Amino acid sequence: MKKKAKVSALNLPEFEALARKRLPKDVFEHVSGGSDDEVTLTENVAAFRRIRIVPRVLRDITDRKTNTSILGQAITFPVLLAPIACLRRFHPQGELAAVRAAASAGTICIVSTGACYGFEEIAKSAKGPIWLQLYAYRDKGVTQGLIQRAEAAGYTAICVTVDVPVNGRRERDLRNQYFYPREMLYRNLKGLGVKGLSPDMNDQQLFAFAGRELNIALTWKYLEWLKGVTKLPILLKGILSIEDARHAADCGMQAIVVSNHGGRQLDGAPASIDVLQDIVTAVDGQLEVLLDSGVRRGTDVLRALALGARGILLGRPYAWALAADGEKGVRRALEMLREEFSIAMALAGCSDVGEIDGSLIVRR
Length: 364
Fold this sequence. Notes:
TIM Barrel; two-stranded antiparallel ribbon; globular; eight-stranded parallel beta sheet; alpha/beta
């Protein structure tokens, strides 16, 4: 890695510049880039800026409460850490630093199936609630084994990523010839118990093998099977369609994450915040709705809650903070976001998260 940069960020976007100095070019562009022309990547942030917040005045906001609950789990403010694979690319402590930072902030960390550390080791480092993000494998035995390990280790929900039937065409990765570090990929697959894996595979063979194992027909029928092998609540990450949201509710999912995968999948898909309100209206309280993609400020959290989200998932910004200053950086990023959110609540005239509603919002 490059020489460590001095950390002096005052907000989440400033961590991006610090991460750029800290990380190799291919790693930085991988986490910061999107697919094709990166239209959706750009729109995720721009769409928030088109939503105006109407301040309310002459209200007592001296005692503000930012706490809430997600799937019955109490958290200090409505922000969770999104799943990101191989966090050791950004800092040697990787997932261990992330779960510790989330716990110190009083919130939930969603651990990626592609974590660099074992699920059990991560769980031992976690002093707060953790969920498992699940990519379903061709071998159902592997998928079921992952869930059983997560349950035994104390994970409290399963977050199934459903918007990656194939990877989007990420041109920054193609230009940089970016691949996940081979040793991390091999160790991860080995730890999952995937059959047919050999240490003699070269890089291309290993990447092709991993792609085949994840290339399954993930359907609503598969989710019915999944419900039968766990008692943990299941949420679906990657919903942008009203029809899919309704189907998720009908199938008994406990929550959905309105997400376009941070603009890394279908370029031209809508910004997550632009479809949030319609999806919340469509499911009509049958499940909890979270939002992912584009959040950079505490005011963005307020906007998402005003449009009906129960909470938001924070992705890229905490990866940048991790690269900049490890666990301390992630803790600082979460502290910043909570402070910004609390100030935004005060200026909008809200003393409790439950008071945030659509009356605060005007679309430009």
